[in-house]
């Protein structure tokens, strides 16, 4: 059994807030992205997932690694841990919910409790770098 969910995520900020997405039937918001398919690179996964979830086209040439984080998956997950490689990147289009995404929200640091543990580490880093406000 795989003991780690390997994911890639796109950090998109606007006005000191982080874009979060909530899938149908879920309570928590996630930084957009998802699991890699076999043989995919981080950038392949990032471009595919953001196109599928948010209908935007990321420019892979502008992608910059923000950090990689690992945390417990959560109380209801059969897999104990999640690893999430995070990137920023320029894009074309306007993000809008698509595929399994039911809702988008712009989240400040005070809303980090509405995200899973690995995403909270990203919020902490964004705050430490001064990219979002408390």
TrEMBL record:
Classification lineage: Bacteria, Bacillati, Actinomycetota, Actinomycetes, Kitasatosporales
Keywords from the UniProt entry: Hydrolase
Listed Pfam families: NUDIX
Ranges for domain Nudix hydrolase: 1-128
CDD domains: NUDIX_Hydrolase
Organism of derivation: Streptomyces tardus
GO terms assigned for molecular function: hydrolase activity
Name of the featured protein: NUDIX domain-containing protein
Keyword Hydrolase: yes
């Amino acid at each position: 059994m795989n003991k780690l969910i390997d994911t890639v995520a796109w950090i998109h900020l606007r006005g000191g807030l982080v874009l979060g997405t909530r899938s149908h039937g879920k309570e928590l918001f996630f930084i957009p992205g998802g699991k890699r398919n076999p043989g995919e690179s981080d950038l392949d996964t990032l471009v595919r997932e953001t196109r599928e979830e948010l209908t935007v086209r990321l420019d892979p040439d502008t992608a910059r690694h923000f950090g990689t984080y690992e945390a417990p998956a959560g109380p209801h997950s059969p897999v104990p841990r999640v690893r999430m490689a995070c990137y920023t990147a320029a894009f074309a289009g306007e993000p809008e919910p698509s595929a399994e995404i039911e809702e988008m929200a712009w989240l400040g640091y005070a809303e980090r409790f509405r995200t899973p543990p690995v995403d909270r580490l990203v919020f902490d880093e964004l705050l430490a770098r001064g990219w979002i406000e408390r």
